[in-house]
Design brief:
The protein is an alpha/beta fold. The chain has helices spanning 5-29, 36-47, 62-72, 89-92, 126-129, 133-138, 173-178, 190-202, 215-226, 232-246, 257-273, 281-292, 300-304, 309-319, and strands spanning 52-55, 73-74, 77-81, 93-98, 103-108, 115-119, 140-143, 146-149, 155-160, 181-183, 213-214, 251-253, 297-298. 47% of the residues lie in helices and 16% in strands. Strand 4 (93-98) and strand 5 (103-108) form a beta hairpin. The chain is globular and about 70 Å long. GO terms for molecular function: ATP binding; ATP hydrolysis activity.
Length: 326
Amino acid sequence: MAVTPDVTDASARLEDLIDTAHRIRASIESVIEGKSDVVRLTITVLLAEGHLLIEDVPGVGKTMLAKALARSIDCPVKRVQFTPDLLPSDITGVSAYNQQTREFEFKPGPVFANIVVGDEINRASPKTQSALLECMEEHQVTVDGVTYALEAPFMVIATQNPIEMEGTYPLPEAQRDRFTAKIAMGYPEPAAELEMLDVHGASQPLDKMEPVATTAEVAALIEAVRAVYVSQPVKRYAVDMVAATRHSPDLRLGASPRATLHLVRSARAHAALSGRDYVIPDDLQELAVPVLAHRLLPSLEAQGQRRRPEQLVGELVRRVPVPDAK
């Protein structure tokens, strides 16, 4: 039977996606050793048009991961070092009076880039953190009543230290909900740490990195991911999975409808990176913890039992019936 042009085009787009994603992944892994799962999830969030929160103790490579992704793509990149005295206008931009033209001119802030790296986001006040709310959700910034659109693709990669660390503020619930996924770097394996001493000991590998993909290529990949098929049973499975967090007695706050949308978008990207043009329940199961856990608030009893949101999500996923249909 002859293959239709649509099927051929879709197959070609999927091959191009996998090839470009492989180049980006190899570029990042030349700097980040022994963290293939973390790198894959980072690329998944990029292709899902999402934002990534990286939480872990200092010194494990959070900022290095964010900068490695940024340098792998030939696009405008801006970095914001969050500090207690940082103001919202330092992020979004400000209207300044021009003495020559006698008019106010808008001076764009660092959010006007394709990739924004926010370093130690929870060291700034909640007021400053909230400056990212509009741009992360609506891809626009409003200053003095004027709205400015942000160019696509747009991704915020923020790092934060655990809230137990000195000088940190907890992220507001609305801020956490706008991050598609949260990951932890974790300590490297001894072999990876030994290799790190060889690679990083004599030089800075970030300085040698060259872009392996363009903004146009990433935009095309995102379009290809949007076309990945999600059946009704799989959509229902995603809804049931998120709804389970809202009815759990172990949680004071369940996941929002935005979480359902982020879960399905991420599953599309995960399926495409796996060489499929359709989503299966396994995609949702693998992404449930990084996509849902950071949005949840455990009950006081669960906190007393030291049960973390990641553990609670894993328990809920195991209880939700899995659909048979593809």
